Amino acid sequence: MTTQRSTMQRRSVPATHHCRGLAVLIAGIGAAGSAPSLAADQPALPDRLSGLLNDYTPASVAGGPYEMRGEWVLDLRGKSGMADFSAAMNMETSDWGITKGIVNPDEPMTRGAHTHHITLTKATVSHDTSVCPAFAPATSGGFVVTGPANITGNGSPAPFQTGGKPLSTVQICITGGSMVTLSNFTLTLVGPATGHFGTYAIHGVVTCTSPNRDGKQLLCGEDLSSHGDEHGGGSNGGQ
Fold it and tell me: How far apart are CA 47 and CA 185, in angstroms?
């Protein structure tokens, strides 16, 4: 079982290599409506953030608990108060499925491996992070993105959003701390999709922001001075 999980993890590729590819997923998705512009006194945000998501669904969902592994990218539309988001993930039943009798450790196909792509277009951006899940140690600052999501299952519309069912709502929270101001990611679903993903927040990490000073693409928290920036610089690469 350790070998299977390690193989799965080795397939993950740093999100910086896929920002462009994931952004293409947004093409062709209809606008989700308009949003009010952000106040001028709000802190400046990066144009783009990307990262990884890694979590488990509750055991109560059919076929669960699933392991969720994926990458995401978030494009902010300046002061418009809107953002576009896309994520690509793969899911398969975790080792706990063995104890439930739904996974045969000698037959990987019994894990029900499948994929999802999640996209939001012109979602609403706000700075009210009081609605976000709590962390320990606590995070602070950051922002929230909320909107209806188009979700695929193995490349086609997911069953939970076909047959006239309403789109599920996605809430994305990006928060951080004193050293890395934008470090933590959560994605929470409301609506029909919770029957598959559950109602709990899906957790992840911010791995890069852009643009960065002098066009450098750095991991969040990496010191610009280590790359020969004569001006030194902050630790957040454009955050």
Answer: 16
pTM of the model: 0.74
- Per domain, the residue ranges of the chain are 2-227
Q: What is the pLDDT of residues 199-216, one digit of tens each?
A: 999 999 999 887 644 455
Q: Are 98 and 138 in contact (CB under 8 A)?
A: no
Contact yes or no for 126/166 (Cβ under 8 A):
no
**Token pair 């643009």 in the structure block, residue:** 211
**Helix, strand or coil for residue 224?**
helix
54 burial type by CB count under 10 A (0-12 exposed, 13-18 middle, 19+ buried): middle
Where residue 94 falls (left for φ over 0; alpha for ψ -120 to 50; beta otherwise) is: beta
- Residues in CB range of 191: below 8 A, 6 or more apart: 166, 167, 168, 169
Q: How far is the C-alpha of 56 from the C-alpha of 68, rounded, in Å?
A: 6
